Amino acid sequence: xxxxxxxxxxxxxxxxxxxxxxxxxxxxxxxxxxxxxxxxxxxxxxxxxxxxxxxxxxxxxxxxxxxxxxxxxxxxxxxxxxxxxxxxxxxxxxxxxxxxxxxxxxxxxxxxxxxxxxxxxxxxxxxxxxxxxxxxxxxxxxxxxxxxxxxxxxxxxxxxxxxxxxxxxxxxxxxxxxxxxxxxxxxxxxxxxxxxxxxxxxxxxxxxxxxxxxxxxxxxxxxxxxxxxxxxxxxxxxxxxxxxxxxxxxxxxxxxxxxxxxxxxxxxxxxxxxxxxxxxxxxxxxxxxxxxxxxxxxxxxxxxxxxxxxxxxxxxxxxxxxxxxxxxxxxx
Length: 332
Fold this sequence. Notes:
Elements: H1 2-23, H2 25-33, H3 35-38, H4 42-57, H5 60-73, H6 81-122, E1 138-141, E2 147-151, E3 159-165, H7 176-181, E4 183-184, E5 190-191, H8 194-201, E6 206-213, E7 219-229, E8 238-240, E9 243-245, H9 276-279, E10 292-293, E11 308-309, H10 310-313, E12 321-328
Helix pairs in contact: 1-5, 1-6, 4-6, 5-6
């Protein structure tokens, strides 16, 4: 009777344990469902898989005890059932103890590792540099809570788009406040914001690129080896490096110019009542007034009022696509 009691206890414990193993399959399902995302962390994934294999190995005592329980119910299966069951029962109890301890420990380790991997998956990138190459435009939620549009293909990728004209749905004839904080939609036309540009470029070295297309579908670019925007006290002055590209250096003449909007005149027109921003219905680092103006009136053919880059579009044509984008120097 004592033997049967222990066998029943053993069987009962194993039944509970079997239920625990079944319930824990959710953890393995999570591992399976996230396998694609976890490929970048081979060490962690391999470790978790090894734990799963260990759990499969320690299930052997369950099989052994299950067999012993069956023998106890059918003693005719062995020559000396009482002696055989008594000896094997001791082994069953000992292995069961190890089994329970191993499973509890491995479940705890697996849970910790899975939580760590989940944090990696859900972690938000700090910049467009962390986006894999291959997708032309990626809308990204950054670690600092802001959103960015990333170009992962052009000239090696890593670009953050800071200005975009693509459909003409956004009005760019706006006051200082709007240009300071930004406006528009990352899915269409937008301006990132001068304050954001200052914060991005005040410490790190950035390069800047302009991509532009005119209505005959001809495409060109201008790239500058260095790009920085000063703070608001300095009216977000434009600091530029050297030029190279296919559309002419039409931003170079605006080097060291302050930013102007319709309600804040910082251009170099001597007449105080005259304003480049008002005359050309936009906002830019105007001098007297511009050789380029990517914040002009969409589709306008009025002299100098469109989305213009003089050497490429002329002053009586408006580009049908324009982007300004920046990335840390040395990435491409």
